[in-house]
Amino acid sequence: MKDKLYKVKQIISVIAFSAVLSVMGMITGRPVMMIAYGGFFLLMSLVIFLILNRQNKMRHEESSGNLGLIIRKVTGVVMMILALVAPLIVALQSELISLPDGISEGAVVGIMLSTAVLFIVLLLLSLFFINDRGSTFVNRFIGYVIYIIAAAFPGLLMSTADRSTMGIGSVYYVALVVLILAYNAKSMFLAKE
Prior knowledge:
Blueprint lengths: L1 H21 L10 H29 L4 H28 L11 H28 L4 H23 L5 H25 L4
């Protein structure tokens, strides 16, 4: 009974996650894009579920196939690319992030890519110190300090261009998507057998 309840909770959380992220479709100015975003995140959730389900079956059958490993790594790379590109799409295709007047598209691409890379590196570095480096107090402390810096970084950067609650909140909404995609990409790419 607990197993079935756990699966029901997982399904409900995936649906809620996809519904919340589908609201990103509203930032394009076309409400119909909510369906596209919701469909995309449901599809990504389904792909991850199928990969993990296949991985569990392979473990039970004690057969090691390279196809599952390749699919996981490719999915991880695709998710990391999406994590890097998501801020660009939001900045260039929506009015969610207020960009300074007179800034060129090339500058926006450079700033957004470097910001996304720095944010992802800080998050993954903090996870490395907290989870993988060891369970000493010093390692965990360093990891949490790095995590706090990573968490503050998007808001501090946005406050230089737009200090409104909507502007800073919007950046954190995009940062949440980047965080989820980057963490799942890391998990898929560096999955331990």
